[in-house]
Amino acid sequence: MLRSVAAISFALILCGCSGGGEPTYSPDLVPGEGVVLIGDAPAADVEVIFNPVSTTGKPEREARMAFATTGADGRFSLVCPPGGQVKDLTGFKGILPGEYAVTFHKFVMPDGQPFTPEMAKERGPQASGARDIVPPQFGSPQTSPMKAKIGLDGATDLEFKLPAAK
To answer: CB-hemisphere CA count at 13 Å for 96?
Structure first.
């Protein structure tokens, strides 16, 4: 599944990235997978961000955001890296158990083409003229009506249905 460079960069910044080497991490991660639909159709290239509201059995300071970008089939598999520079996200597949406010973004260029990871290497979506086609309420943890509770066994059947663009 293609990972959106913009989403990963944004999420790593929000995770508290700092300079230095590869961080250490206590992997209490559980599976976090699902699908995003826009209307009734699977939605490709949607950035999905799980913003912690509370954690199960963990102090709040250990809460971590998890994120993914949907594939062509609308499916996603979350990663949850620690703060710090992470070169390889494959060791951080999953999510910490807890409650999350889930946010979504899907950036497209003025001509309707998707904002690509190659474009993100040069500049971010807004600086490139891309616009988010997901309604703004779904883009903020404070306003998104989408919530998820991840148990100690994880969740592999998450489904989020976003309204179709008008």
So the answer is: 26
Yes or no: say if 123 and 9 are a contact pair by the CB < 8 Å rule. Answer: no
- Is the pLDDT at 160 greater than 90, yes or no? yes
Whether the Cβ atoms of residue 77 and residue 32 lie closer than 8 Å to each other:
yes
Residue 6 pLDDT grade (very low, low, confident, very high; cuts 50, 70, 90): very low
- What is the token pair recorded at 6? 């913009």
Global pTM reads 0.80
Pairing between β-strand 47-55 and β-strand 32-38 as defined by DSSP bridges: unpaired
What the block records as the tokens of 18 is 């700092």
Number of domains in the chain: 1
pLDDT digits (tens, 9 = 90+) for 25-69: 546 899 999 999 999 999 999 999 999 997 666 666 667 899 999
CATH number at residue 126: 2.60.40.10
pLDDT over threshold 80, residue 138: yes
Would you list the DSSP string of 114-126? BPPHHHHTTS-TG
CA atoms within 13 A on the CB side of 88: 3
Q: Which domain holds residue 37?
A: 5-162
CA distances from 126 to 21, 65, 76, 105, 120 (A): 30, 22, 24, 12, 10
